Amino acid sequence: KNEVEQSPQNLTAQEGEFITINCSYSVGISALHWLQQHPGGGIVSLFMLSSGKKKHGRLIATINIQEKHSSLHITASHPRDSAVYICAPSTGNQFYFGTGTSLTVIP
Amino acid sequence: SQTIHQWPATLVQPVGSPLSLECTVEGTSNPNLYWYRQAAGRGLQLLFYSVGIGQISSEVPQNLSASRPQDRQFILSSKKLLLSDSGFYLCAWSVFRNLNTEAFFGQGTRLTVV
Fold first, then answer.
1. pLDDT digits over A25-64, tens only?
2. Distances in Å between the alpha carbon of B37 and those of A29, A100, A106, B25?
3. A2 three-class SS
């Protein structure tokens, strides 16, 4: 049983397109992280949110705690956005990870 | 500033050889520390976490062990590597602050056992 489900698993987009990645989780959480993993493997935390919406540049993350759902949006996508995006709900010491969405943005 | 150092970035080791991966954290005290493994094409799997010096919890039975000799140092070890130990190992730390858990991740170590 997966505590975290992400969709889609793979996504190819043309440069400039608006992108949405969805995350549903089944556990009670205190926060949810969106992570970005580049081909080299290193992971960067993009957002940590526990309610509402956060925006950072072209990235927007939303969360609905009641529905246990979060989305990551990328506006005006660019080839450098190509990476794996991972949803990671957390509670206390425990993190749960989705398997990630592999995004490829074509010039 | 808060940073996390993990090394080496890549490692190729023969079957049966020992392993030691080190992770150190700066800019915080008494963090929760984690070791994760990511097998090819799969999500991150928690291997160990630690809430304090000498306190290690293991999530899955395996050929690996972890130690926390200092507050900001977390070490992943094996006495004899198996082929199945190949994968991407990631160190992370977290701290509960302002009613939220903030998390930071290392750059990872890609281990290939041959």
1. 998 887 899 999 887 777 888 988 888 999 999 999 999 9
2. 22, 14, 30, 19
3. coil
Residue A100 tokens, joined: 């990630």
pLDDT tens per residue across span A33-42: 999 988 777 7
Closest partner residue to A93 (CB to CB) among B32, B99, B104 is B32
The answer to whether B103 contacts A43, with C-beta atoms less than 8 Å apart, is no
Which residue from A minimizes the CA distance to B49?
A: A93
Question: What's the count of helices (H) and strands (E) in chain A, helices before strands?
Answer: 0, 11
Task: Return the residue of A nearest to B109 by Cα.
Answer: A41
Residue B99: the pLDDT is 64
User: Which residue in B has a C-alpha nearest to residue A87's C-alpha?
Assistant: B43
Asked whether the beta carbons of residue A91 and residue B94 sit closer than 8 angstroms, the reply is: no
- Closest to B105 (Cβ–Cβ): which among A45, A91, A100? A45
Rounded to whole angstroms, how far apart are CA atoms B89 and A88? 17
End-to-end CA distance of chain A: 37
pLDDT in tens, B23-56: 999 888 888 899 999 876 677 888 998 989 999 9
